[in-house]
Amino acid sequence: KSLFFWPVLFVVYILWGACLRYYLRRRPYFDWNALLNSLIPSTKIVVLSVVVVSVLVLLPMAPLFMNVSPEFNAAYGRFLQGDFEQKQILIWMTDVVFLFISPIIAYRPFLAWISALSGRSGSLRFAWGRTRGNYAAFLLIAIMTNLSIIAVRGLILFLGGDDYVTLLFLAPLTIYFNVVSAKAYEFFFLEIE
Fold first, then answer.
1. Which of 33, 69, 106, 173 to pair with 164, CA 20 to 30 A apart?
2. What is the pTM of this model?
3. pLDDT in tens, 103-113
């Protein structure tokens, strides 16, 4: 399975970039320089997201290192080792925290990727600066995205479908939210021209 992951990811990245360049009317649609320049912000987004998610995943273990009483450490350790239902609260809390910081580490930097893809600055600071004061709007996009994915996945699982059926129904949703991101890019960045 992993043998095909990187080539498929490469092809998807090229097609995704070409589709966004087509939407933004940037010719040629397969521009290798723009594609290579867009790797810089996309790599920063991935690294930033991995670091934040790693911190969020390790955060529930922080009380064990705070030098509190041994009784608390033992009780909290039992809680962390407890059954899945007890841990579900930590998973949901992590998801909610990630949802609230996703406009900062994912959605707004995604606009830097689109900017680099269209031949402009791919600076994350520039993207954050252009979208300053719009946290609530990006949070609303994040909530709509997540609720849509949860609803589609829940419906497919309820009807007995497997992951491939879920991916089939999530594909148009992904395209829709890419168009929403491209519209956000147009709103915040195209007045520069």
1. 106
2. 0.77
3. 988 888 889 99
Q: SS in 3 state form for 30-55?
A: CCHHHHHHHHHHHHHHHHHHHHHHHH
Buried b (16+ CB within 10 A) or exposed e, 110-141: bbbbbbbbbebbbbbebbeebbeebeeebbeb
Is residue 76 within 8 Å of residue 65, measured between CB atoms?
Answer: no
Taking the CA atoms of 109, 110, 116 and 118 in sequence, report the sign of the dihedral they define: negative
pLDDT tens per residue, range 120-156: 888 888 888 889 999 999 999 999 998 998 888 888 8
Sign of torsion over alpha carbons 59, 134, 50, 171: positive
Query: Across the chain, which distance is largest between two alpha carbons, in Å?
Result: 65
pLDDT (0 to 100) of residue 137:
92
